Amino acid sequence: MQQIEAYKKEIEALPVTDAKSLEEYRIKYLGTKGIVKALMAEMKNVANDQKKAFGQVMNEFKQFTEAKYENWKDIAGNGAASAVADIDTSLPGDPLPLGSRHPISLMRNKMIEIFSRLGFAVADGPEIEDDFHNFTALNLPEHHPARDMQDTFYVQQNPDWLLRTHTSNVQIREMEKGKLPLRIVMPGRVYRNETVSARSHCFFHQIEGLYIDENVSFADLKQTLYFFVQEMYGKNIKVRFRPSYFPFTEPSAEMDIECQICHGAGCSICKRTGWLEILGCGMVHPNVLTNCNIDPNKYTGFAFGMGIERPTLLKYGINDIRLFSENDVRFLRQFTSAV
Ligand code: 2NL
Q: What is the CA radius of gyration of the chain?
């Protein structure tokens, strides 16, 4: 019994820290030729009247050595050592869950990518804008319906501030910098005070383009936009330009593509016309150039603007514009992609 007490003291002082010292401990105390087994074998030499007391001390010692072993195995030894040995580093790692790109971002990135191949850089600007950069500089006179309170969200504390109604404010700011020539696209979010429905929202996305240099012509405008839709919808796409009006361009036009649903036959999507309107464009109005300190006798330029939501709805067969901003993961997960 004194011997058992001595063993206990020895065990308490043991520096078991790694797999090797743990294994040495196991063999010495718990192995088939170990101390516990040897003490058990002593039982037969113990006098009958002491067997019970010795048995109790013996059992307690056995439990003590086993508990120590389990405890050490958890902290120091076996866990770490065998975990290292069990890892096959040649196996591929656990896959990380991929997020998904928003469909509006997918469409916007594709548009940017096409224009970047033509040398257009991406420009960005504020969504809260002053009246000058959103309206006045763009040749929008004060009585113009686009400035009506019904369409525009104004900032209550300062009626000169508003949420931009198009991304043209960025073009104005770029022109103001005075570095020409300029060849840029402006993607971004814009705001209109409209009733929210399946077809329209009070905020949406737009991409506008601007090219200003000496001798930029309407032919350059047409060929640039024709290249864009060919890259977007395929080489055989049919297009048409219709005369139109915008205060900031003269002349102005709208470009239609052959309806992607009925291929010109006429359906509910194209309102039986066979054509889909996809963008507005024109030669930058001389007043706009003058407002930005650019000499309209030396420089000309073209500009265009298109919405991103509508072609995205068409491309993915989505029937409600509100899905874009509801953050429903069942909707968003359908666009999982590495791009
Ligand atoms: C549309 C039409 C357009 C522009 C945007 C523009 C900007 C400046 C000067 C001249 Cl700074 N033009 N932008 C020009 C024509 C059409 O957008 O229907 N957008 C959705």
A: 39
